[in-house]
Amino acid sequence: MQPPMFITGLTINQTVGRAITSIMRMGKEIETRNGTAKFLNDITLEIQNPRERHLSLTGRKSNIFQLMAESFWVMAGQDQVTGFLEFYLPRATDYSDDGAHWHGAYGPRIYDHGQMDDLIETFRSEGINTRRAILMIANPMQDNLTTIQRLYGEGHKPKDIPCNREIHFYVTDNKLNCKVIQRSGDMIFGTGSIN
């Protein structure tokens, strides 16, 4: 079993470059629903300068407008991929279970149950040292196989189970930090995107 790994860099390019090197050197080859991949478990990535978060590695085609559009789409609480999102991300419907929405879209989930309002109120009422400022994205009532097959049909294999599971906000040295817990993430296409 591999011990936890901490990879840090000043920018996302530096951090991801170091992570890819580690994956290529120590990663275990596994079969996934999309083919063979190299995999490392229990990695923490840290970007020291969050303003340097656009991944622009050589050979990776990245549309900065798609990244901005998807960020606005999430913050607007949306799950419908047809119309706005698919204009910027044409393959969005490929990850839709019904051809029009993302089942695991982050937007509705971060606003469910007043979570965003609670997060802000937690900082207001408890101060910057709170350890309770959390947004939950995972939802066992939505993401279990029984519910998914009831919604989309018997035998349906879900296309969109959220990669991000929860987000922790905390302050250290008077700087706001954000820690995202993921079940899985693609180093090339997931990191530096909305994840």
Account of the 3D structure:
The chain is α+β, with helices and mostly antiparallel strands. The chain has seven helices and seven strands, in the order E-H-E-E-E-H-H-H-H-E-H-H-E-E. The protein has helices spanning 12-26, 64-75, 84-88, 106-111, 115-126, 140-143, 145-152, and strands at residues 5-9, 28-32, 35-39, 43-47, 134-136, 164-172, 175-182. A three-stranded antiparallel beta sheet has the order 5-6-7. A two-stranded parallel sheet has the order 1-4. The longest helix has 15 residues, at 12-26. The radius of gyration is 18 Å and the shape is globular.
What keywords describe this structure?
195 residues; alpha+beta; two-stranded parallel ribbon
What is the element layout, followed by pairings?
Blueprint lengths: L4 E5 L2 H15 L1 E5 L2 E5 L3 E5 L16 H12 L8 H5 L17 H6 L3 H12 L7 E3 L3 H4 L1 H8 L11 E9 L2 E8 L13
Parallel strand pairs: 1-4
Antiparallel strand pairs: 2-3, 5-6, 6-7
Task: State the gist of this model.
The chain has 195 residues and is of the alpha+beta class. It has helices at 12-26, 64-75, 84-88, 106-111, 115-126, 140-143, 145-152, and strands at residues 5-9, 28-32, 35-39, 43-47, 134-136, 164-172, 175-182.
Helical content (DSSP H or I, runs of 4+): 25-40%
C-alpha termini separation: 26 Å
Q: List the strand order in the largest sheet.
A: 5-6-7
Strand content: 15-25%
The shape, in one word, is: globular
**What's the mean pLDDT score?**
91
Biggest sheet descriptor:
3 strands, antiparallel
Supply the number of helical segments: 7
Runs with pLDDT <50, length 5+? none
